[in-house]
Amino acid sequence: MYIRSLREGNFQLYVETLTQLLPWMFALDHTHYSRWLSVHVRDMMVLSDKHPAILAEFCAGKFVVHKTMHKFSAMAIDQCHEQNNALIKGSGGAVGLTENPGALHRWMVAGPEIARMTTDFENDSTPGENRHHEQKPAVQEAFRKQVRSLTAVIEEMGNPFLEESQDLLVLDTKDIMTTAVADTVRNVESLGAQQYKTFVEERLEQRTKPVTDTIHRNKMPLFSHPPVKTHSKQKIQLEALRRDCNLFSRLYVSCQVRDGNLGKFFSHENQEAPPSLSQGGKMRLGTKADLLKCIMTDDTDSQPAPMVDGVFLDGAAVVQMLNPGTAKTFQDYADSVFVPYVKSQLEKTWRLDIIWDVYISDSLKGTTRQKRGKGIRRRVMPTTVLPKQWKDFLRVDDNKTELFEFLSQQVMGLPVEEGKEVYTTHGKMVLCSPAHCDVTSLTPCTHEEADTRLLLHVTDAVQKGLKKVTIRTVDTDVVVLAIALFRKIKPEEMWIAFGRGTSFRHISVHKIANKLDPSTCAAFPLFHALTGCDTVSAFAGRGKKTAWETWKAFPEVTKAFNEILQMQADVSEEVNSQLERFVVLMYDRTSETTEVNEARQQLFTHKSRTLENMPPTKAALVQHIKRAAYQANIWCKALELHRTIF
How many domains does the chain have? Predict the structure, then answer.
C-alpha cells in the first residue's frame, strides 16, 4: 500500500500507510525510522491547520515526482534525486572533479544540459508505450509460471492451510518456529502500537521528553537472527587467569594490612563457580570414552560379529549414524535407509529391540544437549522434505521425538518371519510385532534415556530364554551400566557393538565383568558419574585415566562408592572423608592429607598450582558428590520399570 500511494500520488493513502507502518518500526527496533517518521507523520497531519495550500497541492499528487504521463509511475522525491544524480554523473562519473575547479565549473554548467539532451534522444528513438513494465508479455509469462509452480507444490505436499496444529511453521519446508517467535508474531503489532502512542504523547504532544531521547530496544526473537557468539576455550582460560590475578592481588593487599588466614581463604572458592568443576560458569565436560581404554584388554573385544539371539539398538545412535543420502522426504528416509538397516539386523537374530530416548524439558542432560548446538524445528511428515543439515535437525528435541515416533510406526509395518520378534519403544509404551508379544514387564516405562531402558529390555529377553545378546550403541554410559548390571541380568554372553567407522568394535562385557571384582563392578556407575559424565562435571585436568589409576592405588574407596549407592539419605561424613582422600590423590599422589581444603593450600604454596588445577573446596565437593550419587542412583535402578529416586 505504501508503494501504491507513491506510484498513484495518493497523499491520504501515503499518510495512512506510514501511520500503520510506524508501530512495526518501534516493535522491530528501527529506532531512527521510529523517531523521525513519527515527526514526519505529525507534520503531515497538521498541514490542514497550518498550511492548507500545501496540503491542497499534496492532495493533487505533487508530493511525488511525475517524470512521465504513464499511470502508476510516480516516484518519491529522494528516488528521483538519485536517478538525476546518476544521469548527471554519466558514464565517466564525478570522481576527481572536485580537485580541479575549472573542470568542476564546466561540468556543473554543461552536465545537466547534456543529460537532458541524451534523455530526449533516447525517448525519441524508442517507440512510446503507455503500459506499465509489468504488463509486458515476458513479465506476465514469468508470473504465470510462478503460479503454476505454487499450485504444483500444494498438490504434491497437500493444502498447507489445512494444518490443524497451533504451531507457527513455514508452509513449504514445515520448519516450525520456537514458542518465543510465535509469541512475537502474536504481540508485535500491539506492542509497537503502544510504544508509538507513548512516543507521540510524551515527545510531540505533552513534550515531557525530548525527541532525541533514547528509544529502548525490544530485542524480540525473530525468524532469523545471528548465531549466539560463544567464547573460545583460549578466551575462557585467559579470563580465568585474569580473575585469578585479580583475586590474588587483593589477597596480597589484604594480608599486608591485617593478619590473613590462608587456611580459611582456601576453604572458600572465592568465585561464583568452582574453577575445577566448571568452565566459564558452565558444566565442565570430559572425555567419557577414555574409560574404555582403562578397562579393555586384547581379549575383551572382537572384530568379527558374534552370533547372538537378540540385538538391542540405541535408536538415536542409529539415526545419527544413518545419513539420509539421496532420500528426499522422511518417507524416503524410512523406506530406503532406516528400514533396510533394521531388516539387515533382524536377519541375524531372533529378537530385535529398538529403544528411543525420551526428551524432558527440565532434564539433567539439558546442559550437554545445549552445548551440541541448536537447529531448526521442522514438522516430521511422510511428504515433508528432509532438511539439508541433518545433524542440525537432530539437535532439536521436538524434531527427534516426532522422527522417532514416525520411524517406530514404519518399523511396525515390517513383515516378521515366524519365530522372530520386533519391539520398539513409543514414548512410555512399547510396540511389538507380532502383536501378541508379552510386554507387561516393559511398559509403561518412566525411563528418560535409552541407556537404562536398553538394559531393561535385555533383562526381559534373558528372562524369556535368550542367552546371548548384543547392544548397539556409541555411548560409554551403556558400557558402564552393562558391566555393573551383568551379574544381575545373568546372560551367558553380552556384547556391545560400540563406536563407528575405524573405531568400531565388539566389546565383551561378560569377559570384563568376570575379570573385575564384583564390588568394583557394582561401584562402576558411581565412579563414572563422580569423574565426569553428561550430567556431572569432570575435574579440570583430571581425566578418566588419572581417576582409574588413582582408584587402583586407593582401592579402599570402593567401599565408599558402594555405600553411597545404598544410601537413601544424605552422604555420611565418613564416606565423604574417603572421597575427599580419593580426590586429593587424583591431584597429588604424594600428598598425605585427607582434606581437600588443606590440599588446596599445599598445592598453591608448595607447587604453585592455579585455582583451576586445585581440587574443589570441601563445600563444593560435597555438592558434586550428591549430584554424582543422584545420577548413579538413576543408573543402578535401570532394571526397574518404575524407579523411585532418592
Answer: 2
